[in-house]
Amino acid sequence: MKTAKSTAKKAASSKTKQKRATRKVHIKVIGSATNEGDSTDIALLVSTESKAELSRWDKKRITDSLIRETGTSHKKADEIATAVEEKIAHSNLSTVTTNIIREFVDLELIERGMERHHKKHSHLGIPLYDVNKIISEPNNENSNTTHNPESINLTLAENILKQYALRNVYSPDVAEAHLAGNIHIHDLGFIDRPYCGGHSIEYIKKYGINIPNVSSVSSPARHPEVLVGHMVKFASVLQSHYAGAVGWEAVNVFFAPMLDGLPYEKIKQIAQMLIFEFNQLAGARGSQTVFTDFNLYASVPSHFAKTPAIGPGGKYTGKTYKDYEETAQDFLKALLEVYMKGDASGKTFFFPKPLLHVNDDIFENIRAYKLFQYACDLASSQGITYFVFDRGDEVTISQCCRLKLKLEEKDLKETLTPEKMRFTALQNVTINLPRIAYKAEKDEKKLYAELDKVFEYCVRAHQQKAAFIKNLLEMKKEGPLALLANSADGQAYVKFDRLTFLVGILGLNEM
Predict the structure, then answer these.
(1) Which is it for strands 353-358 and 292-297: parallel, antiparallel or unpaired?
(2) By C-alpha distance, which of 440, 429, 431, 494 is closest to 462?
(3) Quick check: 295 and 423 in contact, CB under 8 A?
(4) Who contacts 134 (Cβ-Cβ below 8 Å, separation ≥6)?
């Protein structure tokens, strides 16, 4: 009887093992493998969700992933892969995804105290609940986008890039300062590009349109309508290379040679076309109208008065921009009138934002003063006019919301060749002053110590973003920023030695 019982027990144990082996074989693993490789003793079926492909389970993929992503030794990686395979084989899960496999690996790394390796191996992602909300509800963080499939794509992409930036671009102390609210690093979802830029119509007037990997090449425009098309096309491409505003310098001044001799009705039609076309770019990145600024002048400023004018076909006209002042004033008047009227339904044009420069000449030139008065009427009616005060000999350009750049001696030399005038602000970081005051507990010494610490975080954040962007630019035409790494004049489009780094403040009164 004893022998019979023992035999029966062994038989039952053998059947249990067979059942377990059968269960292992029928576990379905949904994951991210593409090469079949050798089947293991558990021979799991692997289905790739992202690529809709099937392949077999291969423990070696975990080993290779750990070595590639974390720098783990082959021996240690294989040891972890074996432990994970065992846990999966003995789990009661009916379906195993690659996300779950990665979670098993991450848990194993944490249990072994391999925190640094875990940080490198952990994946970027969005909870299913959040994706459902993004698809079904509009993005309230961005008032310039509508709710449609393209804006959904933008929100999803931004979410992943924010995670990437905080884990891979910034050091842990800078990332923690942002997450804790001591500082706010703007546009983390656009970590792979500069913040905003100032550009010149002269560049496309002289060189036409030649955008790497984007479009066919166009010669310099011979007609104002074509120049409008070139400008709008270039702005839409620049939008995909900058996180924020695309600013344009002296728009009415540089347009003037293309409009010379035309009746005012035609000039106004060009003004209308320019503003309407820019507002039709709502179908561009993230279904967002290009955030753009027009720097405008009521008279030709002194720093452009002697600048040789570029006319149709990219040819110099033999005149200076001062010679086209009346045409530039006509075009400004036409632009302001279009802004005043709004679109066909009377809706205000919020973009391109009109930035009118105010200098001494505006009060001495009768025609310029009348344009200034009309711009004031526009401000009171539509609320969209920005006034940029150029006091004394100060020469400035403006871009983004309130960024004003004073031109230094080196910049002023380029006013004779304005196609070379390009300005870039790399990043914007805001300091949370009320939080610093709260942490200081009414102790002035603590307050200034906290301020010093937070300013240091701002500096490091700028240095780290600069290093990241510089690496992308050094890839030149093979990299994602090919447009900004090269230009038609033989220099890099983004002048890395003349970048602006922005630090803003929040809550000074409250502090």
Answers:
(1) parallel
(2) 429
(3) no
(4) 126, 152, 155, 156, 159
Provide the angle, in degrees to the nearest 10, between the axes of the packed helices 264-279 and 224-239: 20
Residue 489 per-residue DSSP state: T
Nearest to 188 by CA among 485, 464, 452: 464
Nearest to 334 by CA among 284, 390, 259, 409: 259
Q: CA-CA distance, 296 to 398, in Å (whole number)? A: 10
Orientation of helix 74-89 relative to helix 60-70, angle to 10°: 130
**Euclidean distance between CA atoms 149 and 135, whole angstroms:** 8
Q: Alpha-carbon distance 282 to 151, whole Å?
A: 10
In contact, 205 and 310? CB cutoff 8 Å: yes
Residue 194 falls in which region: left (phi positive, over 0), alpha (psi -120 to 50) or beta:
beta
pTM of the predicted structure, to 2 decimals: 0.82
Within 10 A of 44 (CB to CB), how many other CB atoms are there? 23
**287, 154 Cβ separation under 8 angstroms:** yes
CA distance 449 to 45: 59
Before 149, cis peptide (omega within 30)? Answer: no
Task: Tell me how far apart the alpha carbons of residues 230 and 232 are, in angstroms, rounded to a whole number.
Answer: 6
Structure-token match 């006013």, residue found: 415
Closest CA to 183 of 511, 449, 461, 400: 461
**Run of H or E including 93:** none
d(CA 164, CA 332): 44
- In the numeric block, which tokens belong to residue 88? 């999966």
- pLDDT tens for the chain, residues 1 to 511: 445 555 555 555 554 444 444 334 344 555 444 344 333 345 565 555 555 555 677 889 899 999 999 999 999 999 999 999 888 888 877 667 777 888 899 999 999 999 888 888 888 888 888 999 999 998 777 666 778 888 888 889 999 999 999 999 999 999 999 999 999 999 999 999 999 999 999 999 999 998 887 668 899 999 999 999 999 999 989 988 999 889 999 999 999 999 999 999 999 999 999 999 998 765 555 556 788 999 999 999 999 999 999 999 999 999 999 999 999 999 999 999 999 999 999 999 988 999 999 999 999 999 999 999 999 999 999 999 999 998 877 777 776 666 677 777 777 788 999 999 999 999 999 999 999 999 999 999 999 999 999 999 999 999 999 999 999 999 998 999 999 999 998 889 999 988 999 999 999 999 9
Q: What is the DSSP letter of 288?
A: B
323, 400, 454 from 5: Cα distances, Å: 112, 85, 76
